[in-house]
């Protein structure tokens, strides 16, 4: 199944049809446009994720040592599956949005392991929960950040703080900020986990409180 772009399957926003290749200014301009437009959510998840940032740093080091792109991705993913999952989700979105500018039509492929492409009905949570369960299962894309959060007393405290704030009528963004200030380590661990889950379940958890916004 081909992965859809961040604009929900409509016309291309950043690709004007001009042919380009990876590494050219045409491709770079299109790629940068997607990061601020149709793929902003995907790249923001990477920016907010410790795992994704570590994965990007690994790619940069590998490139500086002369490794080719595919070998570097495989090597870095072998030690950081969560980071690679978030990064490849964002990368695929940009490739799908720049098929001409980056000559990337064949790179617009599904990288999701748990999301079947179905959006939940209003108020339905079962399909999202199923995808989350798959994402954090044994040897799954988000197993590592899930384990890190489960083993952290700070992450547990952050989750309890966030739930209490939400139950008291607080809005998600304010609650997250308040509890992250109280539990910065827990907040970072939870954000890393949430970024991975939302990268793996963009369709199944679409419109739910898990990945809204």
General description of the model:
The chain has two domains: 83 residues, no CATH class; 75 residues. The protein has ten helices and no strands. Helix 3 packs across helix 5. The chain is globular and about 55 Å long. The protein starts with 24 loop residues before the first helix and ends in a 13-residue tail after the last helix.
Write the layout of secondary structure elements.
Blueprint: H1 25-36, H2 40-48, H3 50-64, H4 69-79, H5 81-97, H6 126-135, H7 143-150, H8 153-167, H9 172-182, H10 184-200
Helix pairs in contact: 1-5, 2-3, 2-5, 2-10, 3-4, 3-5, 4-5, 5-10, 7-10, 8-9, 8-10, 9-10
Task: Give a brief outline of the structure.
By secondary structure, this protein is mostly helical. It is 59% helix and 0% strand.
Main sheet attributes: strand count, strand direction, barrel closure = none
Helix content: 55-70%
Q: In one word, what is the shape?
A: globular
- What is the rounded Rg? 18 Å
Termini gap = 25 Å
| Uncertain ranges | 1-10
Rounded average pLDDT: 87
Label this structure with key terms.
213 residues; mainly alpha; 2 domains; globular; disordered N terminus
């Amino acid at each position: 199944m081909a992965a859809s772009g961040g604009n929900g399957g409509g016309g291309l926003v950043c690709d004007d049809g001009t042919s380009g290749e990876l590494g050219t200014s045409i491709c770079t301009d299109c790629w940068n446009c997607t990061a601020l437009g149709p793929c902003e959510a995907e790249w923001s998840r990477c920016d907010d994720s410790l795992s994704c940032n570590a994965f990007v740093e690994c790619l940069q080091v590998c490139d500086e040592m002369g490794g080719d792109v595919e070998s570097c991705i495989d090597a870095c993913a072998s030690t950081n599956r969560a980071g690679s999952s978030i990064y490849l989700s964002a990368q695929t979105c940009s490739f799908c949005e720049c098929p001409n500018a980056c000559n990337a039509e064949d790179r617009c492929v599904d990288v999701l392991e748990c999301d079947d492409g179905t959006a939940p009905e209003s108020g339905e949570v079962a399909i999202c929960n199923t995808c989350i369960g798959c994402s954090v299962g044994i040897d799954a894309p988000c197993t590592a950040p899930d384990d890190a959060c489960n083993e952290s007393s700070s992450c547990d405290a952050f989750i309890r703080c966030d739930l209490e704030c939400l139950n008291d009528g607080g809005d998600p963004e304010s609650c997250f900020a308040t509890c992250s200030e109280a539990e910065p380590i827990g907040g970072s661990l939870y954000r890393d986990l949430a970024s991975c889950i939302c990268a793996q379940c963009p369709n199944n958890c679409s419109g739910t409180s898990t990945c809204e916004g």
